């Protein structure tokens, strides 16, 4: 894993914005509570005013001191020193949902991208929902078959923002039947962990571990010890064969160590039978 100093809140989408708002409350808390200075990045969406305004309202209601909205609709904007300055002075950044390729194509490699990476290294909380979740990793899913049997070519991958390494993240996981495409992603890249996050569910990553919060589950697919697979031998439409794939399904109250690849309860008890 890459050296990680800050914290990530990676949300599976459709998080509660009207009730207890457990996940978004956690974003505010980690960013400083009533002193939180949040910046909502709406690059992923084609409706930045509507989406940005909604999150500004929610985060303000949850007690954040300042909530700014930053829309990047052209790549040159991401080189603007004034916009970079906004990142330099916030305590938390929130990526909205939409299209993850919009985020990487507009921000990747720019001054804003480097400012975000530096902000994370100095402890700023980086959060994202839906597309904003997928973009966190070094390898991200940008398209793939849903609610179908696993196929060798069921997923299309691209480079993400690399805030967390050696994982690939999928969102709206159970709700959209995305197990097959996450299995295909891990089959193509067995060294990465596949992490599928349900709606109104998130992982909070700090250092080598993450904890699960929210109402759903997080599925972790570990293909490190795959015995055999046909992913490189058949057509993209052919059924996928995999052997010796490890699956963990965790709910709130459980955590996972990304280095040892072992789950545990938040009380610290390792839940693996091999422990």
- Strand percentage lies at 25-35%
CATH fold group = Rossmann fold
Output the radius of gyration: 18 Å
Low-confidence stretches: none
The largest beta-sheet arranges its strands as 3-2-4-5-1-10-11-16-17
Write the element-wise H/E pattern from the N-terminal end onward. Answer: EHEHEHEHHEHEEEHEEEEEEEEE
CATH superfamily: Class I glutamine amidotransferase (GATase) domain
How many domains is the backbone divided into? 1
CA(first)-CA(last) distance: 21 Å
Give the name of the CATH architecture: 3-Layer(aba) Sandwich
Mass-distribution shape: globular
Q: Based on helices, strands and strand pairing, what is the structural class? A: alpha/beta
Supply the CATH class: Alpha Beta
- Main pleated-sheet profile: 9 strands, mixed
Number of helices: 7
> How many β-strands, per DSSP?
17
The overall pLDDT average reads 94
The portion of residues assigned to helices is 10-25%
Main traits of this protein?
Rossmann fold; alpha/beta; 17 strands; 23% helix; 275 residues; 9-stranded mixed sheet; 4-stranded mixed sheet
Detailed description of the structure:
The protein is of the alpha/beta class and 275 residues long. It has one domain: 3-Layer(aba) Sandwich (Rossmann fold). It contains seven helices and 17 strands. The strands form four sheets. It has a nine-stranded mixed β-sheet, sandwiched between helices. Strands 8-9-12-15 form a four-stranded mixed β-sheet. Strands 6-7 form a two-stranded antiparallel sheet. Strand 16 and strand 17 form a beta hairpin. Helix 3 runs parallel beside helix 5 (111-121). The longest helix has 14 residues, at 48-61. The two termini are 21 Å apart.
């Amino acid at each position: 894993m890459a050296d990680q100093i800050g914290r990530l809140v990676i949300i599976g989408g459709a998080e509660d914005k009207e009730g207890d708002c457990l996940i978004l409350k956690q974003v505010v808390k980690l960013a400083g509570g009533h002193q939180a200075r949040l910046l909502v990045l709406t690059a992923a969406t084609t409706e930045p005013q509507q989406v940005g305004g909604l999150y500004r309202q929610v985060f303000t209601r949850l007690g954040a001191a300042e909530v700014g909205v930053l829309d990047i609709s052209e790549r040159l904007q991401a080189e603007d020193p004034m916009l970079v300055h906004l990142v330099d002075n916030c305590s938390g950044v929130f990526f909205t949902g939409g299209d993850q390729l919009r985020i990487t194509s507009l921000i990747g490699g720019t001054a804003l991208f480097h400012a975000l990476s530096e902000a994370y290294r100095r402890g700023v909380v980086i959060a994202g929902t839906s597309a904003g979740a997928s973009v966190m990793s070094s390898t991200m899913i940008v398209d793939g078959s849903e609610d179908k049997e696993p196929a060798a070519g069921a997923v299309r991958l691209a480079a993400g923002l690399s805030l967390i390494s050696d994982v690939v993240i999928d969102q709206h996981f159970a709700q959209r039947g995305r197990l097959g495409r996450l299995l295909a992603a891990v089959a193509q890249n067995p060294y990465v962990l596949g992490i599928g996050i349900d709606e109104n569910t998130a992982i909070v990553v700090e250092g080598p571990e993450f904890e699960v919060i929210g109402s759903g589950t997080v599925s972790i697919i570990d293909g490190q010890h795959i015995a055999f697979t046909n992913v490189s031998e058949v057509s993209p439409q052919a059924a996928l064969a995999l052997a010796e794939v490890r699956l963990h399904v965790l709910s709130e109250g459980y955590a996972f160590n990304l280095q040892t690849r072992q789950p545990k309860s938040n009380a610290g008890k390792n839940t693996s039978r091999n422990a």
